[in-house]
Amino acid sequence: MPSPILDIVVLVHDHSDWADLCVRSVEAFTHNPYNLIVVDSGSKEGKTRLWLESVKHMGHTVVRLEENRSFSHGVNVGVGLGTAPFIMILNDDAIVTEGWDSGLIQDAAPKHVGLVGARSNYVSGPQGNPAWRGEPPYLVFVCVAMRREVWNFVGPMDEVTFDGFSTEDIDYSWRVKKAGYELAVSSAYVLHAGSRTLSTEVGAWREGKDGSVSTTELRARNDAKYNARLLEKWGAAWIAEHTKTEGNVLVVTYHAEDWTRIDFMGALMGLKRSDGVGFSYYHSKRAPIQFARNAVADYALDRGFDWLVQLDDDAMFPTDLLRRLLSHQKDVVCALAYQRRPPFLSCAYEIGEDGLLGRNLEGIEHTGLRKVDVSGFHCSIMRTSVIKRLREGVSGANPGDPPLVPGTRLYYGGFDNKVGEDFAACLNMKKIGIQVYCDTDLISGHIGESIVVDEEYKKKFLAGK
Questions:
Q1: pLDDT at residue number 50
Q2: Are 153 and 29 within one domain?
Q3: pLDDT confidence band for 279 (50 / 70 / 90)
Q4: Cross-strand partners of 192
């Protein structure tokens, strides 16, 4: 019999009917060699005790704890009983589906990934959002997977701070992230009954001096208790940044006059209608572009937006543009665009020896998300925290330029006809260590003289057609 490559840890506290469905689904749909470790956290029902004996007879590992101390404690005990290279933590009221184990193993295998969560029908945050793309701010332990080497590096769950049943999974997600790993949402899917054990533990009716207390109120009190501990441990700033599941997005378009192209407005209407990401809209007109971009940057930062999306009025883009740009969760990401006139070179560049533009990066289409020195902001997204850092003061855009005085707000400074205002901004960002990325799978067409210059048009041009 091959050695197990994954340890599946399931905590059980009564509710054996749900736990039995969970175990049977694991047996039916797990195709990689595995070791099922069932931790009995002080079950009291005789029916559950008998069921646990049957699980043991099936060849699975069963360990009994005398009390249901905490979720963290039970997980730590279960994980400590295994040795497999992959660890999966599964709720006892979750039912796995075909391909779950292979999907989670595949997604947890890359060295930069620390923790992966399965999608589900009943779970908060990105795991419950079918449209979610990119790195989640946290993961819920309905069903998660990780390499044992990550567990050994990060350490066990915090049993001292989280000595009950709430937010311990968020805490562990953040510990994994703080250790330098990324979080990920897997394509694997589990059905979830919805916190059955927790409802029993903290949600029963209780009689007090002032009368009965409802299950809803008890659950709220329990969550409030551990949310307070989470706040004390991580601080308000960290929590604010790492609990956002949708950023506050400002989409800005630039126009030389009041009119704009019909094709562009059609694309913008499609974006509003089809993307599924809420956003505010602002259009800048009748201002030189370098001044307009600076003014818009201030507007976005000062009004509390998290993200600034900038679209030139000659841009064409897909309806899922916002979702794709947000999915990368990077400080600055630009779509790949081509110049409007022959020879239609890319608008992504590397810096030359003189500190200015060196050469266009050609042939980079469909090579994924890649770092670039400079990109046009024709179709782009930026965290407003980048604007805040630029506002604090950076050096000039060109070699030998004096430092900018903090507070001058010339984020797009250095505009002296040697480089464009967006290129100058990239050079400013480079000086304070902000990396610009180009999504080479996201092609934003440029509307030129009655044409749209995109990937297909450039291919025809190079072929002499």
A1: 95
A2: yes
A3: confident
A4: 94
Residue for token pair 């079918």: 130
Residue 1 belongs to some domain of the structure: no
Angle at 282 between CA 305 and CA 423, to 5 degrees: 75
For residue 15 the two structure tokens come to: 């509710």
Residue with tokens 């394509």: 187
φ/ψ of residue 442, rounded to 5: -110, 100
Same domain? For 26 and 143 the reply is yes
> Which residue segment(s) compose the domain that 227 sits in?
6-241
User: Using H for helix, E for strand and C for coil, what is the string for 413-439?
Assistant: CCCCCCCCHHHHHHHHHHHCCCCEEEE
Domains of the chain: total:
2
pLDDT category of residue 457 using cuts at 50, 70 and 90: confident
The pair of structure tokens assigned to 146 is 């990780």
What does the block give as tokens for 400? 């030998």
Residue 431 has pLDDT above 90, yes or no: no
CA dihedral over 276, 194, 188, 17, signed as positive or negative: negative
Residue 166 maps to a domain: yes
* Collapsed DSSP state (helix, strand, coil) of residue 121: coil
In terms of C-beta density within 10 A (0-12 exposed, 13-18 middle, 19 or more buried), how is residue 271 classed?
buried
Rounded CA-CA distance 410/293 in Å is 10
| 273 or 156: which leads in pLDDT | 156
Question: Which three-class secondary structure string do you get for 369-409?
Answer: EEEECEECCCEEEEEHHHHHHHHCCCCCCCCCCCCCCCCCC
Nearest to 31 by CA among 10, 61, 2: 2
Torsion over CA of 117, 121, 126 and 131, rounded to 10 degrees?
120
In a domain, 384, yes or no: yes
Q: Are residues 201 and 99 in the same domain?
A: yes
- For the residues of 36-83, what is the DSSP string, one character each? EEEEEES---HHHHHHHHHHHHTT-EEEEESS---HHHHHHHHHHT--
Write the pLDDT tens digit of every residue in 131-152.
777 789 999 999 999 999 999 9
CA distance 101 to 86: 10
Write the DSSP assignment of 302-369 as a string of letters: HTT-SEEEEEETTEE--TTHHHHHHHT--SEEEEE-B-SSTT--BSEEEE-TTSSEEEE--S-TTS-E
d(CA 69, CA 169): 16
Cα separation, 147 vs 346, whole angstroms: 40
